[in-house]
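User: Protein folding is very new to me. Would you mind checking the protein record under this note? It all follows right here:
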Amino acid sequence: MSDPVFFPRAATPTLGEIAALAGVSLPDGVDPHIAITGAASVERADRGDLAYMDNPRYGEALAATRATACLVSKRFAAKVPATTVAIVTPQPYKVFAAVLATMYPAAVRPGSSFDATGVSPGAYVHPQARLEAGVTVDPGAVVGPGVEIGTGTIIGANAVIGPQVRIGRGASIGANVSIHNALIGNRVILHGGVRVGQDGFGFAMSGQGHTKVPQIGRVIIQDDVEIGANSTIDRGASRDTVIGEGTKIDNLVQIGHNVVIGRHCVIVSQVGIAGSVTIEDFVVLGGQVGVVGHLRIGAGAQIAGSSNVASDVPPGARWGGTPAKPMREWFRELTLLKKLAARRDLPADEADPAS
């Protein structure tokens, strides 16, 4: 089997260029013209590679690395071996990301599955759709009537763009994505299988049966949002579902109708957000968090993974548990339960529920 190169290198930055990108100086005596030809983790890096390290778990790997250069914070600089150039920066991971984007721009956002530009002969674009110059539409994609798509946007294979949808410039719509009843901003990335704008889960329930409530809102996704594979965003019922600028959503996330998510939030895989929740700016929801409907999570709050949020969360709070509560309170409960479980003076029927 051949070994293909999925992300060809587009640039070979020098140590001087990397230091300039980081806004720092190279150590004395280091040749700024040394070229970097690859990037790797500290334990796998070899000569010619750039690595980074900002986690104490990898201290031993850093000490043994063969990388030509390594981006490190000041606290780890002394662990860098003499054969590796230490580029000291307060944000090694962020600088590493910027270097990767320079070297491998094709990995920054999904490209055409057909490795082509323009509208493929196998695509179906309605004559009433309006596409600016520079839009790519892959085979099997369907673009409905009244759709408007901005320049530089890629519509992946078998994607479905419903009537009147608006998509901004420089966006990437992955394979098998469906978008209906939505306004999508500039530079938005929707990975494969994302569903946007379908019905919210709305029913008027009764003992005689459940009556479907028409969902007449939209989905608005603002600029620079990224949404992971197979995530779903329901359209609003009585107001719009909104995803704020710069928010990053992982794979397999469910967002219900009428949800409003602020700017620059981070929502990790398998989160479920029920209808009419408001999440303010810079909130972080860990993996598998569940949020009950009609709540508000304040700006800058952080919720630990696998927690269930059943009440409003104040701004800046750090909560965890089921039901979620302030982190200190949650930890105290866990510690108390652990101590109770370890007691040997409990009656047998209390110590062992199965007895």
Summary: The longest helix spans residues 327-342.
